Amino acid sequence: MRTHITRGLAAMSLTALAVAVVTGCSSTSPEPADGELSGTLQILVSSSAGSDAAFKEVNAAFTKKYPDVKIEFSAVPNENFNSTRSSRLTAGNVDVTLAQPRDVPAFAQGVSASDDNVAADAGLFVDLTDEAFMKNFTPTVLEATSYNGKQFTVPTGLSYYSGVYYNKAIFEELGLEVPHTWSEFKAVASALQEGGVTPLGIGGKDSWPAGLAMLAAVQGLYPTADDKTALATGLWDNSLTLTEGTQLEVLERVKSLYDIAQPNFAGVGYDAIPSGFAAGDFAMTIDGTWNQTTIDSAVGGAFDYGYFPLPASEDAADNATLAGKVELRLAAASNASNKAAALAYLEFFSEPDVYATFVESTGFAPAQPDIAASEFLDGIAEYTKTFSPAWDTIWVSNQDAGPAAGFPFNYPAIAPLGTSTVEQAAQEAQDAWSAAF
Amino acid sequence: MSTYPFSGRKGLRISVGAGASVLAVFALVPAVAVFVISFTDIRGLPGIPIQFVGFENYERFFSAAKLGYNLNALQNTLVYAVASTVVINVFALGIAVLLNGRLRGRTFTRALVFLPTILGVTVIGLIWSLFFNPSAGPAATIWSWFGADSAFFGDPALALSLVIFVQIWAGLGVAVVIYLAGLQAIPEELYEAAALDGADGWKRLRLVTIPLLAPSVTANVLLAIVGSLQSYQLAYVLTGPNNPATQLLSLAIFAQAFGGSTTSGMGQSQGYAATISVIQFFIVGIASLLVMWYLRRREARL
Asked: Which of A136, A392, B109, B129 has its CA 20 to 30 A from that of A407?
């Protein structure tokens, strides 16, 4: 009997081994011949209409220059990007992807590091610091994207996202001017409502577009990078709370914005906003410049539209800048099967004329000097003269805190997105935050 | 011991061994591995040292900061499981009894009821997102007949009920098929005998059909409970990964392990996600065992 069991087990483990061998076999990696690039180049990015089209143009141009390289381009939705990248980095079947390692600010020293920092530390991304093509980029942008004094990523451009797209035709019809203070903004909203127009469109179903309202409110109330750093520091050392003063005002602004948004906006998706704006369902929408090309094609020249910083502050001077961030940052995977092609791709991407066509299609603000920005971006140049980093690029969340303190301004809890009042939402966030210390 | 259909023990051993090892590689090893990694700080990236952290992940799950969120997820999961199980079974039984009779267009109706089962989750998500689109969807039109309007999946008071509704719609087909198979196994003579004894339609259903369907009830209830306790896909495609109103335990696992939220800056932590799934495993296991024990006892009594 025992021998039967032993034999059975032996057979089982043999088969298991066979299965493991079969499934574990991976494709062979083509080694590039000297000088000549060949093989497959696998690129993985997060998807958005504008950047997908722009990457495809770059890819086509790259294949023209290197006809032996076959590009496999994958653009996956934002929410699936992290998991897709993890599994493909693990499997070693991605050459160029996105990453955003960043220096941990002083206030958050010692907290558990972000995935991208850990990955950069572990050497998963190629160090690009000494690559000649990095010199094509604006030094201040590279400063913002450096990590431990090194460059791991190629910036693709800048976006601003504390502003409001507005329908100039409706504004003109009702005799309205671009508002510069919070009171003026509220007056504009009332005038629109009196004129029978819904003031604001928000894609609340996806939650984060409502977060843009929060980020825009923070931008007006904490206009400079120093203001925001002081706020983050104060929250981390618990000398500031979320339930009082300007911090509470942020959520009050958010609530006021919810109040002037289209009915049932909590059930409307982000992708329905451009068409709603184009149809005149609402006169304004808070959105990033990354969506300008999409909005532009939705409007299709039917009316003129503009973009102004959401004036969250009563002081017009505080409302004069747009908050921004460095957009998608390209990195080369160290374990790439086709590293030579990956580096050639980054170099090709960085060539000023290639890069110029890329920013033209995406609508990103250029991260290289001497490249013309789009007409739209030129139109808002007065708000972007000094680069003001957005709140979410400064804030570091605490893994030990509850989810209500993630941003840490608890905009998703405020009705109608959630079920709370401003005070309740703030208290919930404060409790979730304090619990971590 | 018979070795049919094999001529000797060798063939038997190889085929059973193959089956068992597939099971081991794809079911047993991952299950044990999840349990092991729930005690580590593993992240979903290669080349990063993995450390054993003891019960740290479990402490985090029950910590003051996370407990409220997790209890909310647990409560939603239980509401989801109980509501969808009860409604699916009641409806499926009724529909199966109707479709088992001599109804006109019976085959067509059966196909219609089964149709949602063959659709993928994303297709279902798309259909119902469009249906419940608050600005232009058919549901908004129906609501407007009564002078009402709603944000549907965006309304925190309504979202979970709507997801449960879609789950019922999608899960009904399989339950009906199982009940139909059970019904067709009930001998016609029993009904004839019951009719001779003077039992009317309702009595025949209560005293003949339902007792003899007991094994199908057990199968359906268990399938619905296990399916709904583990389900997150519908909530994910209909309301997104971070909506507290529809936060389910399995969705929390998904969000933790695969970083659904990039804006919150929450890093991926597959160790913590494994911890949630171990806890969920115990909840699903205990619930299923209790229900199975109860239904089996009832089956034996009938």
From this structure: B129
A12·B24 Cβ contact <8 A = yes
Between chains, do A406 and B261 touch, taking CB under 8 Å as contact? yes
Mean pLDDT of chain B: 88
Residues near B160 by beta carbon (within 8 Å), at least 6 away in sequence: B76, B79, B80, B245, B246
Residues 247-286 of A with CB under 8 A from B: 262-269, 272, 276, 281
State how far the Cα of A309 lies from the Cα of A179, in Å rounded to an integer. Answer: 9
> Which has the closest alpha carbon to A424: A435, A436, A433, A415?
A415
Residue ranges making up the domain that contains B237: 38-301
* Low-confidence stretches of chain A (pLDDT beneath 70): 1-35
DSSP letters along A146-204, please? -BTTB---EE--EEE-SEEEEEHHHHHHTT-----SHHHHHHHHHHHHHTT-EEEE--G
Q: Which of residues 187-246 of B touch A (CB under 8 A)?
A: 239-245
CATH code at B196? 1.10.3720.10
Please tell me the predicted confidence (pLDDT) of residue A397. 86
Q: Is B28 a domain residue?
A: no
Partner B contacted by A372 (CB < 8 A): no
**CB–CB of B64 and A435 under 8 A?**
yes
Identify the band that residue B71 occupies on the pLDDT scale cut at 50, 70 and 90.
very high
Q: How far apart are alpha carbons A113 and A103 in whole angstroms?
A: 10
Question: Cα–Cα–Cα angle for A390, A313, A291, nearest 5°?
Answer: 40
* Each residue's pLDDT tens digit, B213-226: 999 999 999 999 98
Contact residues, chain B, for A204 at CB < 8 Å: 151, 154
- Range 383-402 of A in CB contact (< 8 A) with B: 392, 395-397, 399-402
How many angstroms separate the first and last alpha carbons of chain B? 35
Answer whether residue B151 is part of any domain: yes
Cα separation of A325 and A215, whole Å? 12
**Total of domains in chain B:** 1
* C-alpha distances out from residue B48 to A34, A89, A331, B116, Å: 32, 12, 18, 43
Question: pLDDT tens, A322-345?
Answer: 999 998 999 999 988 899 999 999
B61 touches chain A (CB under 8 A): no
Q: Phi/psi of residue A163, each to 5°?
A: -110, 175
Residues in chain A within 8 Å Cβ distance of B12: none
In a domain, B47, yes or no: yes
Q: A41: closest CA among A88, A86, A95, A98?
A: A95
Q: Which tokens in the block code for residue A411?
A: 């905009």
Residue range B182-207, pLDDT digits in tens: 999 999 899 899 989 988 888 888 88
Question: What is the C-alpha to C-alpha distance for residues B95 and B110, in angstroms, rounded to an integer?
Answer: 9
Tell me the per-residue pLDDT of B6-45, one tens digit each, with 9 for 90 and over: 778 888 899 999 999 999 999 999 999 999 999 998 887 8
User: Which token pair is B281?
Assistant: 């495993």
Nearest-by-Cβ selection for B44 from A8, A86, A207: A86
Q: Is residue B169 part of a domain?
A: yes
Residue B268 tokens read as 């991926």
Which of B63, B266, B269 is the best mutation test for A, with the most CBs of A within 10 A? B266
pLDDT of amino acid A180 = 97
In the prediction, which pLDDT does A35 show?
60
- Looking at chain B, the whole-number percentage of residues with pLDDT higher than 90 is 51
How far is the C-alpha of A81 from the C-alpha of A92, rounded, in Å? 16
pLDDT for A21 equals: 43
CB-based contact A266 B151, cutoff 8 Å? yes
Q: Do A268 and B134 touch (CB under 8 A)?
A: yes
CA-to-CA distance for A215 and A313, rounded, in angstroms?
Answer: 13
- Look up residue B27 and give its DSSP letter: I
